[in-house]
Amino acid sequence: MEMEWCVSMPKVELHAHLNGSIRVSTLLELAKAEKGDIDFSEVEHVIVKYERSLIEVFKMFDLIHNLTTDHNTVTRITKEVVEDFASENVVYLELRTTPKRNDSIGMSKRSYVEAVLKGLRSVSSVDVAFIPHNEDSKSLFSSLPTITNDKCNGVARKRIYVRLLLSIDRRETTEAALETVKLALEMRHLGVVGIDLSGNPKVGEWTTYLPALEFAKEQGLHVTLHCGEVPNPEEVHNMLDFHPQRIGHACFFEDEHQRRLKSSKIPVEICLTSNVRTLSVPSIDVHHFVDLYNAKHPLVLCTDDSGVFSTCLSKEYKIAADSFGLGRREMFELSRNGVEHIFADSGVKEDLRNFFNSVAKNMEV
Ligand SMILES: CC(C)=CCNc1ncnc2c1ncn2[C@@H]1O[C@H](COP(=O)(O)O)[C@@H](O)[C@H]1O
Ligand SMILES: [Zn+2]
């Protein structure tokens, strides 16, 4: 499959971690500027490394956070991440990030998220819609001029919907997790649509986060969970019992859980490169995408951490097409189906459905 075609196709991204999606050039620039005790040559070695074990990836995140966790940098990377996704014709982005508290620099979970929102507001090279209320009167895509020959690329200015998910880190306590959920509820009018559970899958206990996740669900927030990233059948069982709106990864699923997943119809966020690089699947050709796709299970291709894994969503589509022998029509339908699993309201969904329909006519699918 031609990369160009994968880029030109409209796409939705539902599983992208803000700090993991940092531009490599920005990360290198920040590392270089760091006057402290960081040895740049060592950092560079880690940053440009190809394969990373699970442990290395989480070490890498600690390093990234050292460089990025101040208000201005959070604002900067948010802006860049949105621009990067928009530039490859992602038309809806659900960006997730873990609100962080750092008293020494006057950062609270709230001020962290405010810095993210400032980043969204500061994007100027593309049209961003992230405040739900504003969109009631004017949808982002319905006002488009008729799309002509050049598919998505024909549109002079890129347009993108952005929604936020607040992540609970598995290292957090029940109280800290609850604080994140409360913050998400208070920021719903600013485009926060749900909660994610992520972080090192070898750390923490399901029962620690459950009260916060149940509270989120009761209050009508959407929930997605990193599920089965490492072998932990008991946790997978509990997570399926919880019935989240979506799950991420689903790599280590025993047969019984795979059956339950299929009958539950819970959509799965598939991150091919991430899974291969962290050795969560032995190789791409045995990836569980195939089994789920053949079973017509709801799926959506995502990047996870485009900066850390040197990927982008178009590349993930190309990898899927090349590895699993899917053609343009299948790729387009896969992308279009993603719209059905977004957490934003029905108005946005409808606008995106119409947009995909109009583009389909102009793309060779
Ligand atoms: C097996 C493996 C390491 C796969 C990578 N997949 C992931 N699994 C779990 N949590 C993640 C993963 N990638 C990113 N995160 C979470 O997202 C954070 C980075 O983005 P942010 O600071 O929330 O803006 C990481 O610190 C981690 O808590
Ligand atoms: Zn993830």
Explain what you see:
Mean pLDDT is 92; it is low at 146-150. Helix 5 (71-87) crosses helix 6 and helix 9 packs parallel to helix 10. 45% of the residues are buried. This protein is α/β, with parallel strands linked by helices. The chain is globular. Strands 1, 2, 3, 4, 5, 6, 7, 8 and 9 form a nine-stranded parallel beta sheet that branches. Helices cover 46% and strands 14% of the residues. The chain is built from 15 helices and nine strands. The protein has helices spanning 3-8, 24-33, 40-47, 54-68, 71-87, 109-121, 174-186, 206-218, 233-242, 255-264, 272-277, 289-294, 313-324, 328-338, 346-362; strands at 11-17, 90-97, 127-129, 159-169, 192-198, 222-227, 246-249, 268-270, 299-301. It starts with a helix and ends with a helix. It has a single domain (3-22, 68-362), classed as Metal-dependent hydrolases (TIM Barrel). It binds N-(3-methylbut-2-en-1-yl)adenosine 5'-(dihydrogen phosphate) and zinc ion. The site of N-(3-methylbut-2-en-1-yl)adenosine 5'-(dihydrogen phosphate) (ZJS) has 20 residues, from helix 4 and strand 4. Residues 17-20, 54, 57, 61, 97-98, 167, 169, 198-199, 226, 229, 274, 278, 280, 304-305 line the site of N-(3-methylbut-2-en-1-yl)adenosine 5'-(dihydrogen phosphate) (ZJS).
